[in-house]
Amino acid sequence: MSNIVPLISSGTAGPLGVLHLPRLWLKASLGAAGKLHSDYPAIGAGYDQMVLDGLGIDKGDFEAFISGSKPSYVELENWILEQKGGSLDQDAVDKLNAAIAGYIHADATRTGILEAAGRPDDGTIKDAVNLNNLDDWATFHAAEIK
């Protein structure tokens, strides 16, 4: 498989407790290796940038670390801790996690994702994390299963 759909949810956190960070690591790592599905940015402007901003990590530094070191997930978390003097500001992490969990897509985005996934828009799924999961699963199915 040369074009991998990143199937780690934005609702997943690693040991540091930062939502979306495992997905950002996966996407950036796949992008650096030239293996990321073309529908996905390695480091995008949405949740990816929210995480970098929320942690106070420069995008260029992050990108260079991923490309140059090809770190495991634990190595990435250790690098982040080094950048932050050994610990994270828990209030900043809580605020970031709340912003990720509480993000709501625009109606047109929601409708498009649900339509592509084959699910009626009955108003029960509004949060971006679950909508993005459905989008990933539909993209994976279309690219790899059919």
Overall domain count: 2
> Describe the biggest sheet?
none
How many E-type strands?
Answer: 0
Q: Enumerate how many helices there are, as a single number.
A: 7
Structural class given helices, strands, pairing?
mainly alpha
Query: What overall geometry do the principal axes of the alpha carbons give?
Result: globular
Order of helices and strands: HHHHHHH
What is the CA–CA distance across the termini? 14 Å
Mean pLDDT over the residues: 96
Q: Low-confidence runs (pLDDT<50, min 5 residues)? A: none
The percent range for helix content is 55-70%
Percentage of residues in strands: under 5%
Please state the CA-atom Rg, rounded to the nearest Å: 16 Å
Task: Report on this structure.
The chain has 146 residues and is mainly α. The chain has two domains: 1-103, no CATH class; 104-146, no CATH class. It has helices at 21-32, 47-55, 59-69, 73-83, 90-102, 107-117, 128-145. Helix 2 runs antiparallel to helix 5 (90-102) and helix 6 (107-117) runs parallel beside helix 7. The two termini are 14 Å apart. The model has no long low-confidence stretch (mean pLDDT 96).
